[in-house]
């Protein structure tokens, strides 16, 4: 036993080493050692190597292999689309074919030396695991190589790949165009990304690469055959979905997109636009820099210097917007409506016959004066309640009266046997027919 003032002998040192050796062996074989912060692996030379059981996954270069075990050294992104190899020292993560090796998840023994993969701790803490597919090298090169030559004149596109758990309410159909912002030296989305907590801007930088949505940084997952993958989760982005164990995230992909401008684009300003393929007359909207890459509208005319000029220039008269549902009764797009009266009865009602425009009121209804200027003139209003077209007008209807028939393509809404009457009466009887169609 050592005492103060007594120098240790060789036997003392050997005894100390023996005790340490026994202690490490107990740590190595202790149940649940991997779940703690520190684990121990026996070395081939009789010593031990300690590791942090909570080491995060990391990039690594695969070296030579033997019987399914591979050498590996840690790689760190260099900010230019490549990687920098770290030295095999205690400051970084590395392994050989016999000590802390890397193993392919499916047992492959033909992974080529030099492959860069993502490593994860093995379940028992004795090494690392990774996945390598036959087309992995080709897919990574084809999907991520464009970063090396990315120019500020290039455009990008962000799409949603998957949603799960708390993030399952994220709209999976979102597609956002990103264009270069010279002032901030990054690509910025032309529209905001909509999430459970609201919406916010999208920013991408190619150095790391890095992606943020409404100020929240995404976790870079690597490249697939189409582009770069990033994962997001937690509040405020994800709050509405049903929680799931270890599965509360959404993944987006950033890929090289198109910079094709809208036909008719001539710089920022007020335009008359409509939905793609729509037969309506359009509505006015102000388009800003970046909006020219959207595929959600078609330009009818413009640009106009002011909103007032755009109002005059839109063929429909420039409602903002003049929408009507695309189907029988679904969310609206820009169209204009006409109410046509073909049948009337009663004295003094012939002036109702004709086609009368219905104008969107900006909130929920289309309205127009049928028989404007005649004694039986009547304010006709219609709306869509989410399933059925109805009218809510005066002085004839007091409440909501559903259409007698409606069809979607082309849009046709019919009321028969209506009793029109100016001043509260019903001089036109009950045999007036009104058919509403697109203008």
Give the topology.
Blueprint: H1 10-29, E1 38-42, E2 48-52, E3 58-66, E4 69-77, E5 83-85, E6 94-95, E7 102-104, E8 116-121, E9 128-130, H2 136-144, E10 156-163, E11 175-181, E12 186-189, E13 193-195, E14 198-200, E15 202-205, E16 210-213, E17 216-217, E18 219-223, E19 228-232, E20 250-256, E21 269-274, E22 283-287, E23 298-304, H3 307-313, E24 323-325, E25 332-334, E26 337-343, E27 354-360, E28 366-370, E29 378-384, E30 389-391, E31 401-402, E32 405-407, E33 412-418, E34 432-438
Parallel strand pairs: 7-9
Antiparallel strand pairs: 1-2, 3-4, 3-8, 4-5, 4-6, 4-7, 8-9, 10-11, 10-20, 11-12, 12-15, 13-14, 15-16, 16-17, 18-19, 19-20, 21-22, 21-23, 24-25, 26-27, 26-34, 27-28, 28-29, 29-30, 30-31, 32-33, 33-34
Describe this structure in words.
- There is one protein chain.
- By secondary structure, the chain is mainly beta.
- It folds into five domains: 10-50, no CATH class; 55-132, Beta Barrel (OB fold (Dihydrolipoamide Acetyltransferase, E2P)), CATH 2.40.50; 144-256, no CATH class; 269-320; 332-438.
- It has three helices and 34 strands.
- It has helices spanning 10-29, 136-144, 307-313; strands spanning 38-42, 48-52, 58-66, 69-77, 83-85, 94-95, 102-104, 116-121, 128-130, 156-163, 175-181, 186-189, 193-195, 198-200, 202-205, 210-213, 216-217, 219-223, 228-232, 250-256, 269-274, 283-287, 298-304, 323-325, 332-334, 337-343, 354-360, 366-370, 378-384, 389-391, 401-402, 405-407, 412-418, 432-438.
- A hairpin with a 2-residue loop joins β16 and β17.
- It is elongated, with a radius of gyration of 35 Å.
- Mean pLDDT is 75; it is low at 28-38, 137-142, 317-327, 330-334 and 422-426.
């Amino acid at each position: 036993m050592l005492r103060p003032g007594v120098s240790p002998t060789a036997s003392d040192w050997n005894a100390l080493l023996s005790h340490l050796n026994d202690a490490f062996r107990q740590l190595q074989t202790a149940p649940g050692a991997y779940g703690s912060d520190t684990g121990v692996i026996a070395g081939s030379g009789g010593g031990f190597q300690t590791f942090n059981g909570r080491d995060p996954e990391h990039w690594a270069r695969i070296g030579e292999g033997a019987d399914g075990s591979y050498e590996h050294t840690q790689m760190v992104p260099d900010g230019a689309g490549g990687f920098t190899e770290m030295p095999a020292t205690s400051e970084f993560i590395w392994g050989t074919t016999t000590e802390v090796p890397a193993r392919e998840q499916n047992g492959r023994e033909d992974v080529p030396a030099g492959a860069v993969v993502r490593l994860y701790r093995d379940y028992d803490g004795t090494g690392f695991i990774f996945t390598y597919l036959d087309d992995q090298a080709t897919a990574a090169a084809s999907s991520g190589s464009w970063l090396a030559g990315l120019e500020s004149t290039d455009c990008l596109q962000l799409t949603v790949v998957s949603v799960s758990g708390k993030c399952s309410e994220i709209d999976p159909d979102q597609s956002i165009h990103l264009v270069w912002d010279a002032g901030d030296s990054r690509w910025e989305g032309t529209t905001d990304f909509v999430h459970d907590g609201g919406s916010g801007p999208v920013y991408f930088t190619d150095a790391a690469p890095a992606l943020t949505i409404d100020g929240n940084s995404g976790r870079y997952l690597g490249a697939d055959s189409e582009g770069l993958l990033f994962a997001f989760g937690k509040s405020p982005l994800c709050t509405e979905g049903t929680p799931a164990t270890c599965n509360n995230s959404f993944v987006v992909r950033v890929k090289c997109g198109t910079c094709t401008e809208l036909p008719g684009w001539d710089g920022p300003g007020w335009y008359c636009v409509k939905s793609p393929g729509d037969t309506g007359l359009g509505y006015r909207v102000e388009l800003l820099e970046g909006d020219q890459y959207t595929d959600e509208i078609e330009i009818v005319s413009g640009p106009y210097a002011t909103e007032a000029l755009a109002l005059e220039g839109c063929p429909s008269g420039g409602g903002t917007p003049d929408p009507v549902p695309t189907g029988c009764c679904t969310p609206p797009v820009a169209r204009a409506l006409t109410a046509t009266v073909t049948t009337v009865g009663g004295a003094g009602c012939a002036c109702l016959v004709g086609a009368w425009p219905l104008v969107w009121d900006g909130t929920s209804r289309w309205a127009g004066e049928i028989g404007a200027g005649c004694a039986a003139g009547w304010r006709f209003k219609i709306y869509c309640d989410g399933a059925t077209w109805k009218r809510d007008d005066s002085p004839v209807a007091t409440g909501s009266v559903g259409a007698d028939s409606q069809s979607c393509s082309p849009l046709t809404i019919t009321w028969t046997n209506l009793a029109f009457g100016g001043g509260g009466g019903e001089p036109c009887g009950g045999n007036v027919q009104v058919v509403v169609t697109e203008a």
